[in-house]
Amino acid sequence: MQDTLPLAAAPFRPKVPPPLTRPLGLFAFLKAARENPIGTWMKAHFEEFVVAGETAMGRVTVVSDPALVRYLFVENAANYRKDDLQKRVLAPGLGNGLLTAEGDEWRLQRRTLAPIFSARQVAGFTRPMDAAGARLAKRLARRDGARVDMAQEMTRATLDVLERTIFTQGLPGDPDALGRAITRLLESVGPIDPLDVFGVPGFVPRIGRLRARPALRFFAEVVDTLLDGRKAAIARGEAPHDLMTLLLNAQDPETGRGLSDLEVKANIVTFIAAGHETTANALTWALYCLSQDAPAQERLAAEAEAALDEASGTMALDQLPFARAVMEETMRLFPPVPFMSRQALRDDRIGRIKIPRNSTVIVAPWVMHRHRRLWDEPDAFLPERFLGERREAMARYSYLPFGAGPRVCIGQSFSLQEATLVLAHVARAVHLILPADHPPVTPLHRVTLRPKDGLRMVVRRRG
Ligand code: HEM
Questions:
Q1: How far is the CA of 441 from the centre of ligand 1 (A)?
Q2: DSSP letters spanning 438-455
Q3: Into which CATH architecture does domain 26-461 fall?
Q4: What is the DSSP letter of 386?
């Protein structure tokens, strides 16, 4: 056990579906996986470092040992590609963008986009992120005493950030409509379809994908509008230096190849969806945890008050260590991407376990972050874990909200910086109360992890 904590008197322990003690039969498993995959994990997954077995998807090995995760994602990453199931679920919505591409296609896209996410560039995004947080805080303060849909507010704030950072000329249309289209898309493609589990070819229609069509059409229009506008701006020599210009000007240094229109479009959708939905969910969960932990909520409000420059209304990012720790602890308990899966290209061995060619390997932050052998008080909300020496002593590969290795989230620093600032602004502006008649706040896994029945909180303006 690498994490030793002095125990808080009564830390908050969010209620989540309990692990199963016995494996489900095939049909019960498929039903549960479709409804909410979070409910299909077994007790053994949270107690053993490697659990291998035959499932509906063939042989699946769930790996939770940090050393073995490192082997899988870093040392022998070349032997593992994103698996077909993941692609069948994501590709209809996201096309062949950075999240789903492989090989040379992926390398060119990653190299092209890396400059926007460099440490220097992300530091330069502090001001627009801070401004988005301030706008959100103002909106909330105006609604003193009202019940506010916080999931929707977090979506608005993260779309606002995207529009002022990587899509600098804004996103067309109504931001709420865009937020709803993304939720609808994930809601439709998110449930795991049995046809995908059994590898039925893609031309056989899936109900989820049929339901996703209106959202996909909406996206296609948004993307076409963006692309046409930008091509014209490039032709006039007036294009800003942002994600879209980089995509359109991409060139492989060896082959001179650029990105096709399809690849550019796929990346626009990928970055709109991956760039805000995950962060919005992480923020929503953080607000929920804070509403149940009064001392943490007050500590954060005081830190944010001290970090705020009254004259300019800006927050000093480097004075928000607790806000950052709250975000990190929230993503431990509610990782926005609950699991990652890979397919072995060749036979391999992970520790003493054989990994046959084509079999699936899963690394699940949901499991690892609550693993009995990796954490003290695994189910308790204790942001202090992520402060000072304790944070530094944490084993690198036991905490993986952003994945690891070459396919690690390209937006990692971007989103952590954004979430820290936005959270601080909210905590400083309002006190958050979860009304007693709110339905239980439980996680629903639909590609990302969000509260099943939303989060409508009463906000009380501070000071
Ligand atoms: C709390 C926020 C976020 C979380 C928890 C998160 C999580 C992840 C994870 C776990 C992966 C790796 C998936 C795998 O290995 O199979 C990933 C990849 C990715 N993320 Fe994020 N992400 C977040 C925010 C963002 C943001 C803000 C952006 C863009 C602005 C973004 C864009 C991407 C992209 C494009 C990839 C694919 C990278 C590649 O394969 O080269 N993400 N993310």
A1: 25
A2: SPP--EEEESEEEETT--
A3: Orthogonal Bundle (1.10)
A4: G
Q: How far, in Å, from the CA of 450 to the mean position of ligand 1?
A: 16
Atom of ligand 1 nearest to the CA of 117: 30
Cα-based distances in Å from 271 to 115, 127, 314: 15, 20, 26
Q: Does the beta carbon of 271 sit less than 6 angstroms from any atom of ligand 1?
A: yes
Q: What is the pLDDT of residues 54-83, one digit of tens each?
A: 876 788 999 999 999 999 999 999 999 988
By CB atoms closer than 10 A (0-12, 13-18, 19+), residue 170 is middle
pLDDT at 245: 85
24 vs 323 pLDDT, higher one: 323
Q: How far apart are CA 236 and CA 239, in angstroms?
A: 8
3-state secondary structure of 81: strand
For residue 7, the model assigns a pLDDT of: 52
In this structure, the residue with its CA closest to atom 29 of ligand 1 is 275
203's tokens:
């031309």
Question: Are 14 and 173 a contacting pair, CB within 8 Å?
Answer: no
Indicate if ligand 1 lies below 6 Å from the C-beta of 73.
no
Check the CA dihedral 399-401-406-411 and report its sign.
negative
270 lines ligand 1 (CB under 6 A): yes
Angle value at C-alpha 242, between 154 and 253, nearest 5 degrees: 130
